[in-house]
Inverse folding.
C-alpha cells in the first residue's frame, strides 16, 4: 500500500514538472509580433492568373442586343407621342387628363393623383 502511494506521488510530481517546462521554439517558426507579423504562405509562390482579353473590342452579340434595345425604346416613344397627340392630353386646360377636370367649390376640392392640382 505504501509503495503504491509513493509511486502515485512521484508520478504526479513528474507530470507537474513536465507540464511547467518551457518548450524551445525552433528557429524556422517566426513569432507573431507587431514588428514581425506572421505570414503563413510567405515561402510559397503562387503566380497570378492572366485574364482573357476579348479580340476585336465589342462582341457581335452585345452589339445586336444594344440595337434591339434601341428599337424597343424608339417604339415606346412613338407610341407615347401618338397617345398624347390623339386626345387632349397636350391641351393645358386638361392638365394631363383625357377630359377637363370638373370644377368644384373650394371646400369640395381634392388633390388630384394624376396632375397634383386641387380640382
Amino acid at each position: 500500500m505504501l509503495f503504491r502511494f509513493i509511486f502515485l506521488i512521484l508520478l504526479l510530481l513528474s507530470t507537474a514538472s513536465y507540464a511547467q517546462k518551457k518548450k524551445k521554439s525552433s528557429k524556422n517558426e517566426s513569432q507573431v509580433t507587431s514588428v514581425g507579423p506572421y505570414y503563413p504562405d510567405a515561402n510559397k509562390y503562387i503566380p497570378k492568373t492572366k485574364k482573357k482579353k476579348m479580340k476585336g473590342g465589342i462582341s457581335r452579340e452585345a452589339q445586336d442586343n444594344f440595337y434591339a434595345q434601341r428599337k424597343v425604346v424608339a417604339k415606346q416613344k412613338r407610341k407615347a407621342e401618338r397617345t398624347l397627340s390623339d386626345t387632349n392630353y397636350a391641351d393645358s386646360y386638361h392638365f394631363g387628363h383625357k377630359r377637363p377636370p370638373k370644377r368644384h367649390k373650394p371646400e369640395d376640392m381634392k388633390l388630384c393623383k394624376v396632375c397634383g392640382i386641387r380640382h
